[in-house]
Amino acid sequence: MRHFRKIDKALCLVLSFTMLTLFNSCSHRDDKENLHEKKLRNILIRGNDSLRINPFSSISILDEVITQTTDSTTYHKAIITKGKAYFLLGKFDSAMLLERKALAYFQTNQLSDSTKELLSDCYNSLGNIYSRLSKSDSAIVFYEKAIQHNIPTRVPDILINIADQYKFKGNYAMSASMLRKALFICDSLGVEKMKFPVNFALADVYLSLHDYKLADQYYLLAEKELNDRSVNEKLVFYNNRGNYYYYTGNYARSKEWFLKVKDLAEKTKNEFSVNLCYINLSDIYLHLDKIDSAKHYVDKSEKYFASLTFKAGIYYANTIKLGIAMKCKNFNEINSLKGEFSDNEPEVDPNLVSIRNKFLEQIAVEQGNYASAYYYLNKNQQLNDSLRNDITLKRMEELDFRYRQDTLVLSKEIYINRQNSEVQSLRLSIYFWILVSVSGLLISLVVYLGIKKRHNQQRITYLEQITRFKMTNIRNRISPHFLFNVLNNEIQNMDEEKKEHLFTLVHLLRKSLELAEQVSIPMSDEVEFTKAFIELEKHKLGDNYSIVWDVDPKIDLQKTRMIPLMIQIPVENSIKHGLGQLNREKLLTISIKQEENGILIEIADNGRGIRHTYETQSKGTGTGLRVINQTIEILNSRNSEKIAFSIRNREKESTEGCIAEIYLPINYKFEYK
Fold it and tell me: pLDDT (tens digit, 9 = 90+) per residue, 36-50?
């Protein structure tokens, strides 16, 4: 029996050891899988962030995700985003293939809330593709499916897309109705960022209706927010603003806006926008009697639109070529061009039809065919009558919309009045009890003062906690002791050159942690820390660089205090984003000057400048800049003289690059308690 007990005990030990090994193995495998998924998600975020700025770069980043994962949700997220990149590059067949692939996956799998949004994203992307292929009915179908699966705050964006399709079909009343619905949702949900595209789209509808006064009014409303919009939104706005001046006969001003489109579209390599701009420029040059330029641009754009079978673009190119042939009195070519399209082409914007009819009317007059000229004049009159009918419908819907808005405002006023009545009743009750008992008043006063004091103490405590968190949130993402121990162990096994480099890095990390724990530090510490950082990072600049320090000798750096990392972070941004990948001479200048009422610090480089995504006047885009700006905001609230901090491009100077400016007032108090 003892022998069997020993065997049972041994078996138990073996089984326990086996189970523990399996558990640790599974746990280790799960950790590796989680790390892998996190890595893929980070890559996916980078690909999505670079989508609007550089679609080519976005595709190469997304391919990393696609090659490292299988048929999963993450995989198809990358497929959707890659399809969007191809769409922005004008490669609609490739975009269609990828979006259809993702759509099939999400349709055949059980839908979660996040999957529903991805399904909506697929439908919306397919709607965009069909829109560019001039298939408005198909585009509307996909947009409406996108709305069914989307969250309310994203619905206005899709409604704008639907409104565009109705406008292309000539149904301006329905287009205006969709846009007012979008504006109503924006107001109801407080989605302020969507008001720009809604105002812009309404301006476009009024332009199509030839109501130029209202069109200009909505364009001006949208233009106030133009600087904060994406590259793609700027392209569309520039183009349609150029159209406004075209239809009002101001061709010189129209040309200015179309040239803005050309510069931005060529920089971002957006083929569709580039060629749309070319065809608009050809029309402008035709009206300015610059026939050679008109021919040049219409030939380039016609080839592109023909490769896409984009009917509206081909129709417009044919119309401009008719105008060029008329100017050159080439009647044989006119007869050939007239035969390519009928007088009643479906799915063509009525405004394009109107432009063509005007050219055909002028050609008929040139040929002495007044009956034909009257025919085209009459067709344009019928188009204008149709527009007037649409205006009537639009005005009726607008009155209905305003009625619903006024009803909503009235309901709010009734609710506010009811609340005011309740507050008034409460006040009367308080006054009654005050009159009844003086002792009650004294007790209430003491309690009130005690609560107020406690609330103030809690507020100060919370403010200290929030401030300390903001100042040390980067430092707390890693374990400093663990990091330093690992680095020190690794340093011992390296050659002298690498060892010196890592010693500098460790010193820099230790110093950054020390600085991050303080509200303010001597400027001498910040300068020393920044120089150490530059020394560590200078290998990224290559050999052809210069770094200039210009420090006013009147300034006592030891006695002058400032926020930690306020110089180092702009220097880091200059090296990383501005100078790092340049092949020409690089110059980084750090200037510290004494002014009458403070100290001005300037960090300037001659690099590539900053993209729109990174531009800031008061808000940081990265973690470091965000922490600095939040710290400044808290400290400025306790000072009459404010610290000023801004980063901008050197657009008005003779050189490229960007400049960060920091102004520190004299006698500034670095206190937040």
Answer: 677 777 877 887 777
